[in-house]
Design brief:
Blueprint: E1 2-6, H1 11-22, E2 26-31, E3 46-49, H2 55-65, E4 69-72, H3 79-84, H4 86-106, E5 111-117, H5 140-159, E6 162-168, E7 170-172, H6 188-196, E8 203-206, E9 218-219, E10 221-223, H7 224-234, E11 241-245, E12 251-252, H8 253-264, E13 270-273, E14 282-283, H9 288-294, H10 303-316
Parallel strand pairs: 1-2, 1-4, 2-3, 4-5, 5-6, 6-11, 7-10, 8-13, 9-14
Antiparallel strand pairs: 9-12
The structure holds uridine-5'-diphosphate.
The site of uridine-5'-diphosphate has 15 residues, from helix 6 and strand 8.
């Protein structure tokens, strides 16, 4: 299938592109390289450097690629930043994303696969979280993704553009070739591993007074390869709607640091800091719907394998991508 992938030079996008190509799909990557890296784009893909805000370029690129499906990864995705600069999130994630949905509709694309997030739920009433959980985001990042989900729902109803929105919990880990390199790293696992690499003196624990057993936030970490597999399944006919993607196991910040110590064999210094604004205490997925309806079967569900794959990649690429 011909697949048009936005954000294919970013962390999650680059690994999904690799898996798409391995499965025999034909891929065009569209990325403005503000977050992504040119060398993270698999050389088997066609690369277009462009911005989603440029409506004409988006239209021409989608049409020119002959896309039958679109996968939309390009977005700003930091909770903390969204609390400081909400306009950036609504502009890039909603307004600019709309150019892509319009282009997909006009080009007769059959399936739109969207990177959504558990941040659309906000603090849940019931854990583990099913897709029936009310969506009440507590940060502009989650709100922007929810707005986009709603746009997709209307486009399906009114224009017949079919979609799958995958609500990721915490993506982590790496493939052999591609991994996580953000120019400004805010995520827990790479920040902790940077201490193990000797690049940082210590890591931070944001908040130790949450209503959780050890007082730190709990998240559900999912291996990037398992995430990529779900995208592949989403392309199949008859798959449609909203799906949580997580392992159903929650790990606290302290447990993640302990796992990183076990994997790296190093003692890692962590200092306790105040809470980071916008962080819900506990996010754990019930992904039964994805298993049932997509046929999704995660292969690397334990945190140890996830952290090990990240550690292997960071050790081989201590400076990340060259560009
Ligand atoms: N976190 C932390 N120290 C860090 C980075 C993150 O304690 O250096 C916490 C953060 O507050 C959250 C969890 O780890 O509770 C996961 O954060 P991350 O940014 O990795 O992902 P998010 O859940 O925000 O998407």
């Amino acid at each position: 299938m011909k697949v048009f992938v936005t954000g294919g030079a970013g962390y999650i996008g680059s690994i999904c592109v690799e898996e798409l190509l391995n499965a025999g799909h034909e891929v065009t990557v569209f990325d403005n390289l503000t977050e992504g890296h040119r060398s993270a784009v698999d050389e088997r893909a066609t690369f277009v450097e462009g911005c989603l805000g440029d409506r004409q370029r988006v239209q021409d690129s989608v049409r020119g690629s002959g896309a039958e499906a679109v996968m939309h990864f390009a977005a700003n995705a930091l909770v903390g930043e969204s609390m400081q600069n909400p306009g950036k999130y609504f502009r890039n994630n909603v307004a600019h994303g709309l150019n892509l949905v319009d282009a997909a509709k006009e080009a007769g694309v059959r399936k739109f696969v969207f990177s959504s997030t558990c941040a659309t739920y906000g603090p849940p009433e019931t854990v583990p979280i099913t897709e029936a959980e009310p969506q009440k985001p507590i940060n502009p990042y989650g709100e922007s993704k929810l707005m986009f989900e709603r746009i997709l729902r209307w486009y399906r109803e009114l224009h017949g553009l079919d979609f799958v929105a995958l609500r990721y919990f915490n993506a982590a880990g790496a493939s052999v070739r591609f991994g996580e390199h953000h120019r400004i790293e805010t995520h827990l696992i790479p920040n902790v591993l940077a201490v193990a690499l000797g690049q940082r003196e210590q890591c931070e624990i944001y908040g130790t007074d949450y209503p959780t057993p050890d007082g730190t936030c709990i998240r559900d970490y999912i291996h990037i390869i398992d995430l990529a597999q779900a995208h592949m399944l989403a392309l199949e006919p008859g798959r449609s709607g909203f799906f949580n993607l997580g392992n159903g196991e929650g790990y606290s910040v302290r447990e993640v640091i302990q796992t990183c110590e076990a994997v790296t064999g190093r003692t890692l210094t962590a200092i306790e800091q105040p809470r980071r604004p916008g962080d819900p205490p506990r996010l754990v997925a019930d992904a039964a719907k994805a298993r049932r309806e997509l046929g999704w079967q995660p292969r690397f569900a334990d945190l140890q394998s996830i952290v090990s794959s990240a550690w292997d990649w960071h050790r081989r690429h201590p400076e990340g991508y060259p560009d």
